Records
---
Amino acid sequence: MKRIAKVVTSALTTVIASLVIPLSGATSASAAVQDCPSGAFCLWSDANFSGVMLVPSSVGTGWAYFGTRNFNDLATSGRNNSSAAWCVFDDINYQGALLAYFPPNTQISVLSSDLNDRASSARVC
Ligand SMILES: [Ca+2]
């Protein structure tokens, strides 16, 4: 009986440990420029690559409307880790003013106040 209890306790400990690891991983995430994957183009809602991060390159060579991820008119900083240039636009479907141009492997830590919180789409350009 004692041996069975020990095996059950051990199994429960393993299950609990496997439940705790994903939770702690999710809560420890904090946005930083290093979070932008290699080869990706990334935008953040706040200055200096902080706040919520959106990765327009994750859907291909363009993201036509940031509102699909509740990121419309929020971008404040960006990092281009890709070998292609990326352009950020004021309106959906790559329309409106060109707010920012990111040559390959460049970053903007804070968009100027007249361009901040306006981006609605981005694509390779
Ligand atoms: Ca906009």
---
Amino acid sequence: MGQSRSSVEIATCHTCKVSKPFSCFPKHKKKKNGIGTECKDCFKIYIKKWRLENRERYIKHAISWNKSHPEKRKALEANRRVRSVQGNVMLHYSQMKIIDTIYESSKRISDCIGINHHVDHIVPISKGGYHVHTNLQIIPAIINLRKSNKLNYSIP
Ligand SMILES: [Zn+2]
């Protein structure tokens, strides 16, 4: 007696609903019949989707990094903004380090005294100023907003 094992065993994929031989399914030890519930083709699609979702998770991670490092983000953004206005301003690594430090100091000052400070371009970028440390100053945000892109604004 007993069932004939000679014929090819067929299973129906839960995802595409197509009946396929067992060889078209990935192995799955925990399942009674030893194979997964979806066929290899559907599994491949699933993996692709998983990779894409993880890429999105990675992007989300990058966004949250930006949120938790606002001063570094601002420095990067300012760099990008300047590049788009002035073409490629070649900064030496040590100069970029100084600029980073200025942005970090600005945040530290804001945290310490509880008044929001901005890093300001003394000569505004829109007026041809450069994004270099000699053209940067840390001033209270409210002054920065008043100064906007005015030239020769005397800080009270
Ligand atoms: Zn399938």
